[in-house]
Amino acid sequence: MNKTDVLIIGAGPTGLFCAHQLGIIGLSCEIVDNLDKAGGQCIELYPDKPIYDIPAIPECTGEELTNNLLQQIKPFNVKFHLNERVEKLKKVENRWHVKTTGNQEFDVASIVIAGGVGSFEPRKFPLKECEKFEGKSLFYSIKDKSIFKDKTISIFGGGDSALDWAIELSNTSKVNLIHRRDGFSGAESSVQKVKELNNQGKLNLYTKYQIASLTGNEKIDSVSIKHDEGEVKEFKTDYVLGFFGLIMQLGPILDWGLDINKKTVEVNTENFETNINGIFAIGDICSYPGKLKLILSGFHEGALAARGCFKYAKPDEKLRFEFTTTSKAAQERLGVKK
Amino acid sequence: MAKVTYNSHDHKTHTIDIQNGLSVMEGAVQNDIPGIDADCGGGMACATCHVYVNEEWLDKLPTKEDGEEDMLDMAYEPKQNSRLSCQLIISDELDGLVVNIPSKQA
Predict the structure, then answer these.
(1) pLDDT for res A254
(2) Which residues fall within 8 angstroms of residue A58, CB to CB, at 6 or more apart?
(3) Per-residue pLDDT band at A308 (split at 50, 70, 90)
(4) Closest approach of chain B CAs to the CA of A67, in angstroms?
(5) Chain A closest CA to B73's CA: distance in Å?
């Protein structure tokens, strides 16, 4: 059991900055995130794209913003639990017990949900028959590439994951790469490489095709693809891989008894507490009149939610408002006091 | 102002007036038309406001930016007449636009 003052759900910019604000006022926290790294949408959706509306930072990328936030919370030694999704919530006297998919358990005074638009899950094929093969001969991510050696692999998608795996697996497998249009969203150098390999006969590229059907019993035998103009091709394949990026799903939080409206959690604007005492929501996941889904709004919400957490973590103490510029206590916590 | 008709996959029809400058996505969300999720809020970062545009309207719409085409790769069952409704900004010229909402957004 991990015992700490506050559990933050979501390691996006809002969750990270909330950890900073908790640290400044002397509360401890740990962060859970379903992805394998911190940064949330900034890292998953636009690591290289510029952001222009972070106060006092004229321009930065999602990755730079994340790295700066991680740097900023370094003094507080925040513990991260990545690749974990929160699942069960239980009230035990005046504390909360939270359990994750990986059986991590937390005992906390309060919870801050900074979950964006939910946890990221892979987008799947629209075909019903894909489900029965999933995890056996159909995958949306690769854990062990050795199983593909000397097999026929059909990869769908046009982003970096699809291109990178097509290139990599073409060394040891027979690869078909299928994409719905001629253009690709992946890196131009990878697109060139794929076209080169196609010309050399080292992989087969099919553009303007999409999946039409799969056949097989225990495992996939063959896949059919359909051209924009209607022509259908069928070929034998051992494995099918789909790389269509990630979608965001609210998941088990939906069952926690929170007031939810259009996939967002309703909060007050005084301290961003939800309808359940001790559970706060900040960032894209919260809603209130006038809500803007901007990173800067999430920072504000995190600062207030952190102060809202104080009375649950330290019910006998009074929180005084202080500036980091002049507060000895805050500077000690930051490790900068001379 | 333009009248926009949204056909759902289960044959329900909603027709609403949308002010110039708002997007087809915002028109749907503000009028509680189901089937357009718009998870990212109109940032061209999620493909959950995907619609199919009636053929006769395709040429009259603003052309797709690269980013929109890239995001449509991620949409559920994209077709040649697929658009992200957050990128369709209403003007008088779009009066009478008809869009069809896919059976799922993700």
Answers:
(1) 86
(2) A52
(3) very high
(4) 21
(5) 7
Q: Does A158 touch chain B (CB under 8 A)?
A: yes
The mean per-residue pLDDT over the stretch A161-179 comes to: 96
Instruction: Provide CATH code, domain A2-121+247-334.
Output: 3.50.50.60
What stretch(es) of chain A map to CATH 3.50.50.60? 2-121+247-334, 124-244
| pLDDT for A48 | 80
**Preferred mutation among A247, A262, A263, A286 to probe B, highest tally of B CBs within 10 A:** A247
For the segment A74-90, the average pLDDT, to the nearest whole number, is: 96
Q: Does domain A124-244 have CATH number 3.40.50.360?
A: no
pLDDT tier, A120 (very low <50, low <70, confident <90, very high otherwise): confident
Q: Which residues of B touch A117 (CB under 8 A)?
A: 39-40, 46
Res. A183: pLDDT tops 90: yes
- Higher pLDDT residue, A195 or B76? A195
Query: HEC profile for chain B?
Result: CEEEEEECCCCCEEEEEECCCCEHHHHHHHCCCCCCCCCCCCCCCCCCCEEEECHHHHHHCCCCCHHHHHHHCCCCCCCCCEEEHHHCECCHHHCCEEEECCCCCC
CA distance A213 to chain B (A): 13
Residue of higher predicted confidence among A46 and A41: A41
Q: Which of residues 38-77 of B touch A (CB under 8 A)?
A: 39-41, 45-46, 48, 66, 69-70, 73-74, 76-77
3-state SS assignment for residue A211:
strand
Do residues A184 and B66 make contact, with C-beta atoms less than 8 angstroms apart?
Answer: no
All domains in chain B, ordered by first residue:
2-100 (3.10.20.30)
Question: Alpha-carbon distance A333 to A313, whole Å?
Answer: 17
By the CB < 8 Å criterion, does A45 face chain B? yes
Rounded Cα–Cα distance for residues A162 and A180 (Å): 12
The pTM assigned to this predicted structure is 0.77
A240-272 pLDDT, tens digit each: 999 998 887 888 898 899 999 878 999 999 999
